[in-house]
From TrEMBL:
Residues 54-596 form the UDENN domain. Gene3D superfamilies: 1.20.58.900, 3.30.450.200, 3.40.50.11500, PLAT/LH2 domain. Keywords: Guanine-nucleotide releasing factor, Membrane, Phosphoprotein, Repeat. One of its GO terms (cellular component) is membrane. CDD domains: PLAT_RAB6IP1, RUN1_DENND5A, RUN2_DENND5A. The keyword Repeat applies. This is DENN domain-containing protein 5A. SUPFAM superfamilies: Lipase/lipooxygenase domain (PLAT/LH2 domain) (SSF49723), RUN domain-like (SSF140741). One of its GO terms (molecular function) is guanyl-nucleotide exchange factor activity. It comes from the Eukaryota. Residues 785-948, 1132-1280 form the RUN domain. GO terms for biological process: retrograde transport, endosome to Golgi.
């Protein structure tokens, strides 16, 4: 058997209490002193424990000596070393006894405790450890008297520090951990009495293996321990059994089972074949019992989206089981970041890590969650395993088909007699939970589900239609959700004799069933993923080097094929490191042989699904497809367990000297290292793989279940081209010197900067689409969902940066907490009178000399933006406020500037952050702000589009023409503003007031302004140049050009106009200031004004230009409808804007229009009215040519009449605009053009060269307009007010 494939050593740990300073010849007292010094030293050294309340601090004098923990050390290991797996003494010592060495007396419970652990190396490969901790009697008198002395000192010190003023000292309970200041004397002095008590110390035996055969290793260790505690010595010396495990028991080959002998009975392990799900040997059952289905699915979702996950339990094995189960259920994806299922006490500072992590923290069972100070909680998922409680990060998207998925898992659990909501008896706080009030739970949305409570999620969902449908479906399978009906075993394989016991077989069955259901979710969701993988155009070598700049998956196309409900989850999942690694792996493995085993299994499953599903490969459906592979998977396990493939050599007597291997009841002996240091010179297992090179290859194969290392190139790639997350998979467990901690933090700082660079680049590329072609896309179109995802992940990154190296944590959001400190500082300075204006920077780019009427500039103020967010009552939490503030700053293009200002308060930063924090590394901070500055290149509406229900103040400025007596205007004006999310209704403007501010619910991006007056007074004529409207929170300013009269007898006689506006970008403002020319975007009315009043002013367009304008306008509308619904801009702009459809059709009708006589204006509407009269007369004389034509004429007349009868005074051009809009909506425009081209009135009013008289041109115009027929055009209310057609 090659060593690398077996358990290769056992570790025994016990304390060396005499320490280095005490030699055997010194007196007992010195030893005690040394012990005390050691404890004091370790107390001062352990700064890490600041995260946990004092009760859990290891060396704390509040703790009685028996409750303290001491440093452990490795006593022996066999063999000394294994070439490919160097022994890491510190890591093993820390993980075998994460809290150090413990003492107990005969009064305490001393049950042996088993737990497993994992050591992750730099390259990501893993080694598994399995340890059994038990207690042995302390035989050294010196250690016993040292403990006694410690008690005397503890009590004396306690008396000095806590002399209580009153005498009610006995009120405290007699546990060693009483936290009141008065501890009863009786309890203190009697905790350990050398004459009466027996002292026990912990010892641990441990197996280190390359693969995780948890059940088998647990049995081996338990049987070894049983051998030293049973009254009868074992049949052979212990060395024989350990030698057998180390050198004679091989690893079962893939797809085979193996039987070997323990001390008291056979042990069986089996390994899945290469076509099955990878090896996993932890009981899934326990996780579901502890947490309940709903919590498990929520935790699973958090892990997939790479949130920080902290598991909390007082059982090490539970931490390991939950962590391993969650990562195993992710198949085919793999957790890429920090993975420490058991975090040793000395590494608590690691919770500060600003990267995604999955860590397990040991609780002492006394403190509740509220006492736990965690450095970073904005995107933390906290799982209190023992208390069935999970605290989720904010805005966690739902896992696709979550209800049906939970339903499917529940059926399996119920078939095994496990309630879906978990078993409360297995969690410590059953009694605590019962006392919780249901209303508290209802208000606490973050708690997944609390089993056994009246708020059981199944009760809540009973009324739900989906559940009702599901229940109907489920009834067919013979299971009812009402009661836990246990399905009858339908297995026809009863005749197979299973070699392991029934309980173990059930665990195997449940494991594989649950894992198959989870794996099936991904095979269904990603059945077509290969279609969207972007294969690199260059060779592998250059692909490696540019890996981070390359897109490896066409996310936009993939998401556009997904059902709507999946998008929130999938859009975020596609951004994760685990998904990127999975796709990289796919790109690297072209041929089958080269393929990573995990990928090979997944691809074969995907192929099967494709064969089964006849649907088109890319058309997605949200129909829930149940798992169909369970029976097959169960059968393979059953066959392996029924027929054992290999049996290992039995343990036998070794060549030991007489007297070696003696047995002493209750003590695990020091074994004979000479016989255990090397294996047999020849046996059939070692012969098979003698050459070292072969062994190296095998080692690579063997780790591939955890790491994808198949060749040197890939090894190099894994080392270099991976992101920070995988650079630090596990903290260094060996050397904890300040320099190592500093180095780790430096890695984090570099990683955060790199992540910031990649995120900003990705967001800009998506937004601008410029580099899209290089990245393998034709045209990038970022979807709203995707943009939201990217911004949410930027917020997460900012939270991680702000919580790195925090001195004192306040509130859940580190960023918001910093902002509040800043605000407080500013207010203090204001009141003390030494206020610097840097807090409120005026927009210095504006020129004061600009005398044209303009709005006073909006102040750029970090504090003002914070106040806006604080005033939004809808946002309840700190994390929510921080995110809203980031979104607002991005929309205002001030994120970099605001953060720079926040960090310019160096005193505050020093007060809040440790020296190593990211925010105190000046160069990195500058680069980080520089990366954020690049967002100013694009426009985001990430605040306006998300907070749709909040109240927003709007500022209006109306600019009348100075030249034409605006000051004499006597009528009462009104205005109505519309946006994509709603409209204001009519707002009366006080006379002679041209500027005002009002508040209303968020209107979204503004589209139109209706402005008019009531025609009262002597001079009811008003020439308006333009209207400006500004959102006072985001600062977005819209300009609505008009340039037309409002008044009877002026222009086209209109009393109200609809103005179409566009967002002003800061550079157009700058241009205007320099040259004062009319703005680039003109309202359609601007053009008409020139045409109608002085037709000669405007350059006449030729027919080619007019056709082009029509084509562009229609094209704009077609493109609008081809975008996903959430990303469409304003249709009003495309219809009525500067180069919209109305303006283009106006050009058609203006072309060749006979010039009006002097001083008389003729409008297109006049021509249309004449045409209407002509058709009505025809109908009365019953001279209508054909029925089809008759319907068109009737329709045309009906629309003209309706528009003329509207109560609104919109003028002739306004009426024409309304007609075009209605015609587009009802798909009638092309009919009307055909009608008018044939009308005799056209011959009278148009010259021969007119476009409308040229049949070829009219036909092509009709064809272009017909393309609008397939779209369902919905008009904004402001365009068709007062018309009921």
């Amino acid at each position: 058997m090659q060593k690398c494939l077996t358990v290769h050593r056992s570790v025994f740990v016990e304390v060396d209490l005499t320490l280095k300073t005490a030699t055997k010849h010194e007196s007992c007292l010195v030893k005690k002193k040394a012990l005390c010094k050691y404890i004091q030293a370790s107390k001062t050294r352990d700064g890490a424990s600041r995260f946990i309340s004092s009760a859990t601090e290891g060396e704390n004098f509040e703790q009685t000596p028996l409750r303290r923990t001491f440093k452990s050390k490795v006593l022996a290991r066999y063999p000394e070393n294994v070439e490919w797996n160097p022994f890491d003494q510190d890591a093993v010592g820390m993980l075998c006894m994460p809290k150090g060495l413990a003492f107990k007396t005969q009064a305490d419970s001393r049950e042996p405790q088993f737990h497993s652990f994992i050591i992750t190396r730099e390259d990501g490969s893993r080694t598994f450890g399995f340890s059994l901790t038990f207690f042995e009697e302390v035989t050294s008198k010196q250690i016993c008297s040292a403990m006694q002395t410690l008690y005397h000192m503890h009590n004396a010190e306690y008396d000095i520090l806590h002399t209580p003023p009153t005498n009610d000292k006995d009120s405290c309970s007699s546990t060693g951990d009483c936290n009141g200041t008065s501890v009863s004397k009786l309890q203190r002095f009697n905790s350990y009495d050398i004459s009466r008590d027996t002292l026990y110390v912990s010892k641990c035996i441990c197996l280190i293996t390359p693969m995780s055969f948890m059940k088998a290793c647990k049995k081996v260790l338990e049987q070894l321990h049983q051998a030293v505690t049973s009254p009868q010595p074992p049949p052979l010396p212990l060395e024989s059994y350990i030698y057998n495990i180390l050198y004679e028991v091989p690893l079962p080959p893939a797809g085979r089972s193996l039987k070997f002998s323990g001390v008291y009975g056979p042990i069986i392990c089996q390994r899945p074949s290469t076509s099955e799900l990878p090896l996993f040997d932890f009981p899934v059952k326990e996780v579901f019992e502890l947490l309940g289905v709903e919590n498990v699915v929520q935790l699973f979702t958090c892990a997939l989206l790479e949130f920080q996950i902290l598991l909390y339990s007082q059982h090490y094995q539970r931490l390991m089981t939950v962590a391993e189960t969650i990562t195993a259920l992710m198949f085919p994806f793999q957790w890429q970041h920090v993975y420490v299922p058991i975090l040793p006490a000395s590494l608590l500072h690691f919770l500060d890590a600003p990267v995604p992590y999955l860590m397990g923290l040991h609780s002492n069972g006394l403190d509740d969650r509220s006492k736990l100070e965690l450095p970073q909680e904005a995107n933390l998922c906290f799982v209190d395993v023992d208390n069935h409680f999970i605290e989720l990060p904010e805005d966690l998207p739902q896992f696709p088909n979550k209800l049906e998925f939970i339903q499917e898992i529940s059926e399996i659990l119920m078939a095994f007699g496990i309630p879906p909501e978990g078993n409360l008896h297995c969690s410590e706080s059953a009694s605590k939970m019962k006392s919780l009030r249901a209303c508290d739970l209802a208000s606490d949305k973050r708690n997944g589900n609390i089993a056994g409570s009246p708020l059981n999620s199944y009760e809540l969902l009973k009324e739900n239609e989906t559940i009702a449908r599901l229940q109907a479906l489920v009834k067919r399978t013979g299971v009812s959700l009402e009661k836990l009906g246990v399905r009858e075993e339908t297995s026809s394989k009863k005749d197979l004799k299973i070699q392991c016991d029934e309980e173990e077989f059930k665990i195997y069955q449940l494991n594989i069933q649950i894992r198959e259901v989870f794996a099936n979710r991904f095979t269904q969701m990603f059945a077509d993923y290969e279609v969207f993988v972007i294969q690199p155009s260059q060779d592998k070598e250059s692909w490696f080097t540019n890996r981070e700049q390359m897109q490896n998956f066409d996310k936009a196309s993939f998401l556009s094929d997904q059902p709507e409900p999946y998008l929130p989850f999938l859009s975020r999942f596609l951004e994760t490191q685990m998904f990127a690694s999975f796709i990289d792996n796919k790109i690297m493995c072209h041929d089958e042989d080269d393929k990573d085993p995990v990928l090979r299994v997944f691809d074969s499953r995907v192929d099967k699904i494709r064969l089964l599903n006849v649907r088109t490969p890319t058309l997605r459906t949200s129909m829930y497809q149940k798992c169909t592979t369970i029976d097959e998977a169960e059968k393979s396990i059953e066959l392996r367990l029924a027929k054992i493939d290999h049996t290992a050599v039995h343990p036998h007597l070794l060549d030991m000297k007489i007297g070696q291997g003696k047995y002493e009841l209750g003590f695990f002996p020091k074994l004979q290292s000479d016989v255990l240091s090397t294996g047999p010179a020849s046996n059939k297992w070692t012969k098979r793989n003698a050459p070292a090179q072969w062994r190296r290859k095998d080692r690579q194969k063997q780790h591939t279940e955890h790491l994808r290392l198949d060749n040197d190139q890939r090894e190099k790639y894994i080392q270099e081209a991976r992101n920070l997350g995988s650079a630090i998979r596990q903290p260094k467990l060996s050397n904890l010197s300040p320099s190592v901690i500093a180095q780790t933090n430096w890695k984090f700082v570099e990683g955060l900067l790199k992540e910031c660079r990649n995120k900003t680049k990705r967001m800009l590329v998506e937004k601008m689409g410029r580099e899209a072609v290089e990245l393998g896309h034709g045209e990038v179109n970022i979807t709203g969902v995707e943009e939201n995802t990217l911004i949410a992940s930027l917020c997460d990154l900012l939270e991680r940066i702000w919580s790195h190296g925090l001195q004192v944590k306040q509130g859940k959001s580190a960023l918001w907490s910093h902002l509040l400190h800043y605000l407080e500082n500013r207010q203090r300075k204001t009141t003390s009178g030494s206020f610097s204006t840097s807090g409120i920077l005026l927009d210095s780019e504006r020129r004061k000399s600009d005398t044209s009427p303009a709005m006073s500039p909006l102040r750029i103020s970090l504090i003002q933006d914070m106040r806006h967010i604080q005033n939004i009552s809808e946002i309840k939490t700190d994390v929510g406020k921080a995110r809203a503030w980031v979104r607002l700053s991005m929309e205002k293009k001030l994120l970099s500037r605001h953060l720079k200002q926040l960090l310019s308060d160096h005193e505050l930063t020093k007060k809040l952050y440790k020296r190593y924090a990211f925010l105190r590394c000046d160069d990195e901070k500058e680069q980080f702000l520089y990366h954020l500055l690049s967002f100013n290149a694009v426009d985001y509406f990430c605040f306006t589009n998300v907070f749709t229900t909040i109240l927003i103040p709007y500022h209006i400025l109306i600019v009348p023409s100075k030249k034409l007596g605006g000051s004499m205007f006597t009528a009462n004006p009104w205005i109505c503003i519309s946006g994509e999310l709603g409209e204001t209704g009519v707002l009366q403007i006080p006379r002679n007031i041209l500027e005002m501010t009002f508040e209303c619910q968020n209107l979204g991006k503004l589209t139109t302004v209706q402005i008019g007056h009531d025609n009262s007074g002597l001079y009811a004529k008003w020439l308006v140049e333009y209207v400006m409207v500004r959102n006072e929170i985001t600062g977005h300013t819209y300009k609505f050009p008009c340039g037309r009269w409002l008044g009877k007898g002026m222009d086209d006689g209109s009393l109200e106009r609809i103005l179409v506006g566009e967002l002003l970008t800061s550079h157009t403002e700058a241009d205007e200031r320099q040259c004062r020319t009319p703005p680039l975007q003109q309202s359609p009315s601007m053009i008409r004004r020139f045409v109608t009043i002085s037709p000669n002013n405007k350059p006449k367009l030729n027919t080619g230009q007019i056709q082009e304008a029509i084509g562009e306008a229609v094209n704009g509308i077609v493109k609008h409808f081809h975008k996903p619904e959430k990303e469409r801009g304003s249709l009003t702009l495309l219809l009525c804007g500067e180069s919209g459809l109305v303006s283009a059709l106006e050009q058609v009708f203006q072309h060749g229009f006979k010039s009006p006589r002097l001083f008389k204006n003729v409008f297109i509407w006049d021509f249309l009215e004449k045409a209407q009269t002509y058709y009505e007369t025809l109908e009365q004389n019953e001279m209508v040519p054909e029925e089809n034509w008759q319907t068109r004429a009737r329709n045309f007349c009906r629309f003209i009449t309706a528009i003329n009868n509207t109560p609104r005074n919109i003028g002739k051009d306004g009426k024409f605009q309304m007609l075009v809009c209605l015609g587009a909506r009802d798909h009638l425009l092309h009919h009307w053009i055909a009608l008018l081209a044939d009308c005799p009135i056209t011959a009278q009013m148009y010259e021969d060269i007119a476009l409308i008289k040229d049949h070829t041109l009219v036909n092509s115009l009709i064809r272009v307009l017909q393309t609008l027929q397939e779209f369902n055009i919905t008009l904004e209310a402001s365009l068709v007010k007062g018309i009921d057609i």
